[in-house]
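Please decode residue identities from the backbone states below.
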């Protein structure tokens, strides 16, 4: 991997790398924040998955997470949200909710997307192996979080990999892609018409059959324009209660879907992960 940008931040380093992804069959860019504690030895790591239209940069420049990551001695790895580059298939109409910037953290099986859109394997396997080999990260202390499409990614990846993460959190996650327009479009496009395959990437389905009980924190703004149609935290809450899965779902009055919301609570999310790492 090649270092392409570096900025000192809260005593640590905000880094940006490019690399060739074999899994995605394209060049990729990702961001890493290393707290000052990483100078002394391996530190725990939080993976952050961003939402629709984002690159690795939205979270890094807007969330204000570095202050809290430095305070708690946690590294943050923030990948891009889809494969990139010439030849990578996109939404035929250039829509923002499918294709580039909208990989949904699944392994596509449908042509032409299957050639590059393997974001689940990229986030679960290829990227962690790369950063663990090159940077002072402790693979035994991992957590995962994300926003909207990335909240769906964080919840599903944590639930599908018991024993891997110490905690999971999400801001405004798409709680059931099986039951919302964003999810129906993306899972249909990447996985085809067989909804059995979709169930493997739906947090409500995965909570219902989960064996592990992972500390889980979800924040959702009550003034979020996407809340009723796309996000539906009530579905996650209902299945969590039925499965006796302990989760904190906090409705936050007045907050919308933006990074102003994320920046307001990212400190609490990082403290939550720090307490479990
Ligand atoms: N219509 C909007 C939708 C894009 C949007 O709101 N993206 C969110 C994530 S939504 C769910 O995954 C986001 O994080 N945007 C980036 C940002 O920096 O705010 C549009 O295209 O404008």
């Amino acid at each position: 991997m090649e270092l392409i940008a570096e900025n000192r931040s809260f005593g640590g380093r905000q880094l940006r790398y490019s690399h060739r992804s074999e899994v995605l069959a394209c060049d990729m860019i990702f961001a890493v924040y290393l707290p000052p504690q990483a100078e002394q030895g391996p530190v725990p790591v939080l993976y952050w998955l961003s939402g629709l239209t984002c690159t690795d940069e939205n979270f890094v420049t807007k969330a204000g997470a570095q202050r809290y990551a430095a305070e708690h001695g946690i590294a943050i790895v923030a990948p891009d949200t889809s494969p990139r580059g010439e030849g990578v298939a996109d939404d035929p109409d250039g829509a923002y909710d499918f294709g580039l910037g909208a990989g949904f953290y699944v392994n596509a099986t449908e042509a032409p997307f299957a050639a590059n859109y393997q974001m689940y394997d990229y986030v679960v396997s290829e990227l962690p192996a790369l950063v663990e080999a090159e940077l002072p990260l402790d693979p035994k202390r991992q957590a995962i979080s994300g926003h909207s499409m990335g909240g769906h990614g964080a919840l599903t990846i944590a639930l599908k990999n018991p024993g891997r993460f110490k905690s999971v959190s999400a801001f405004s996650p798409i709680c059931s892609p099986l039951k919302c327009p964003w999810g129906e479009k993306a899972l249909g496009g990447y996985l085809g018409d067989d909804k059995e395959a979709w169930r493997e990437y739906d947090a409500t389905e995965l909570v219902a059959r989960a064996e592990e009980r992972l500390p889980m924190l979800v924040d959702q703004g009550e003034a979020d324009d996407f809340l009723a149609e796309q996000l539906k935290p009530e579905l996650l809450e209902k299945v969590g209660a039925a499965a006796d899965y302990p989760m904190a779902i906090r409705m936050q009055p007045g907050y919308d879907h933006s990074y102003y919301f994320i920046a307001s609570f990212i400190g609490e999310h990082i403290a939550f992960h720090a307490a479990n790492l």
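Observation: The chain has a mean pLDDT of 98.
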